[in-house]
Amino acid sequence: MRNIVFHEPEVYETYDPVRSLSHAWDCIRVPIIVPLLRIAVYICLGMSIMLFIERVYMAIVILCVKCLGKKRYTKYRLDAIKEDLEKNKNYPTLLVQIPMFNEKEVYKLSIGAVCGLLWPSDRLIVQVLDDSTNEALRTLVELECQKWIGKGVNVKYETRNNRNGYKAGALREGLKKHYVEDCEFVVIFDADFQPEKDFLWRTIPYLLENPELALVQARWKFVNADECLMTRLQEMSLEYHFSVEQEVGSSTCQFFGFNGTAGVWRIRALNDAGGWKDRTTVEDMDLAVRASLKGWKFLFVGDLARVSIWKKWHVIYAFFFVRKIIAHWVTFFFYCIIIPATILVPEVHLPRPLAIYLPASITILNAASTLRSMHLLVFWILFENVMSLHRSKATIIGLLEANRVNEWVVTEKLGNAMKQKYNAKASKRPRSRIRERQGLSSSSDLGTSELSYPTKDDNTMTREVCRDLWALMSP
């Protein structure tokens, strides 16, 4: 019995994956995660401050413009130019281009609206650039053109055997036609745009007054803004762009981007800038950058000496860096990733004024241009956060010139089809007063366009545009 040795029973611990993960997280959080997250917080806070300063600056400028009532275009003698045109009958020849691609629902509306523009018929050429792949639809569009030709409108129906360059390629080929040689200005309307009849009378005189003016960009609203919640949210984002960004850029003699439609170009300026190029799917912004850096002036109806350093700095910093890169990256990385991550890592302190008050101020400044939709502010914030993912991705794709940089996806235009279906259903049931107040149609001074789900983001900036800008920055 004395040789008997008693051993303590062995205790076998069961494997707990939760404890293992928790232990692994504790091991990497302090030495690795905390420093990286702190750096990310500082970077995002810096970008947020840059964005806030830019928004406050634009708010101050737009308030001065509204209070003083002096927009850039008010200095032109519009009425005197109109009287001179009507008296001397020296109307310039205009080319109106309507690029379209399988626009089944809206081709009649756009062609009809353009053919109804007030301008001498012998000084107006309507060019329908049809890249449709549906042969039956091509026939219908051609028949619509023939109908207006029979009414005395000079309509040219042009097609191509390929879609090289997409919209830019179609516009470029259209300007090569022999009958364009006598045209002094070109007006561009997308297939979903419906200009008012006096559009030309309210834009062309500005170009006649100032020979250094290359572009007159018109303001418009959206015919289907009240279609659903999604279109209302998109309107909130785009209202800020038109009523603030474009107006500030025009009023302070700075750069603003061409919107691709409802714009009037001086053909000589367009050619001087190198014409339409299909190196990028954001051909409108690309052309605007090149023309602006050539020294041409823009006017938003709504001066460059030969381009100054301040002008170049504004194009690179304010227009591209802050508005097209920082604005989307801050929204996605800071609000959607960094702030939630700080909750899991309590060692990283995020100052409340920078985490709450600064984003709230930026949001209010952005949404203030659409007061009628302020009650949708929470939904708009969610919408912008989701869209920031796609916009950030588009920015990275464009900057890195990835395979998808020149991918073109056309959003189907429905025109009034959805509205007509809704009206048919609504006529069968009584309409509430609340719905009547919310369903006010969006009118426009110079025309209406259609909101759609965004598929082509203007942040897809190609390497060639960046190279042009930096080349001009060098002495």
UniProtKB/TrEMBL annotation:
Q: Where is this region: Disordered?
A: 424-458
Task: Indicate yes or no for the key word Ribosomal protein.
Answer: no
Q: Which UniProt keywords apply?
A: Glycosyltransferase, Golgi apparatus, Membrane, Transferase, Transmembrane, Transmembrane helix
Pfam families in alphabetical order: Glyco_tranf_2_3
Q: Where is the composition biased (Low complexity)?
A: 440-452
Q: Which domain of life is it from?
A: Eukaryota
Asked if the Swiss-Prot or TrEMBL record annotates the protein with the keyword Repeat, the reply is: no
Localization, per the record, is: Golgi apparatus membrane
Q: Which residues cross the membrane?
A: 39-65, 315-344, 356-383
SUPFAM superfamilies according to UniProt: Nucleotide-diphospho-sugar transferases
* Listed name of the protein: Glycosyltransferase 2-like domain-containing protein
Q: Which organism is it from?
A: Rehmannia glutinosa
